[in-house]
Amino acid sequence: EKINTPFDAMGEERLHQLVDAFYSRVGEHPDLAPIFPSDLTETARKQKQFLTQYLGGPSLYTEEHGHPMLRARHMHFPITMTRAKAWLTCMSEAMDEIGLEGPFREDFFARLGLTAQHMVNTPENDE
Ligand code: HEM
């Protein structure tokens, strides 16, 4: 019998809506836009794959790109605490936009907060 995962609880369609709402904010954010590509289509596609597996769904990211090694993949980009906070603000607003609420949202957001902190690789005044 199939065990329900957070991915099942959220559903693919809402996860994709969340990622699209998130990257429209990232693309407009003064602290984030400068380090992202101007066309975020491919970034969003990879993030959909990644968050699918992060939430316990099929390993779409790993199947196409190999082990995520997220911190290593972020080393090319100067990620300060300010940028981590900005990333999380965009995510929180995207969650508001799609109406994600309750304990599911809180758990998901708390987990993203830990992952975001782990990506910080640059002191504030050193970028
Ligand atoms: C890729 C920034 C946090 C998952 C990227 C890219 C940038 C970036 C600039 C490259 C985009 C591209 O070239 O297409 C940041 C910043 C963060 C952050 C400033 C703030 C802490 C996170 C977190 C996650 C994440 C918390 C996961 C929950 C990814 C994934 C990719 C990515 C899956 C695609 C990697 C690939 O190229 O295969 N991020 N990121 N990032 N990020 Fe982040």
UniProtKB/TrEMBL annotation:
Gene3D superfamilies attached to this UniProt entry: Globins
CDD domains associated with the record: TrHb2_Bs-trHb-like_O (cd14772)
Record-linked Pfam families: Bac_globin (PF01152)
Keyword Heme included in the entry's annotation: yes
SUPFAM superfamilies in the cross-refs: Globin-like (SSF46458)
An MF annotation (GO) of this entry: oxygen carrier activity
InterPro entries, A to Z: GlbO/GLB3-like (IPR044203), Globin-like_sf (IPR009050), Globin/Proto (IPR012292), Globin_bac-like_CS (IPR019795), Hemoglobin_trunc (IPR001486)
Family: Belongs to the truncated hemoglobin family. Group II subfamily.
Name used for this protein in its record: Globin
Organism: Cytobacillus horneckiae
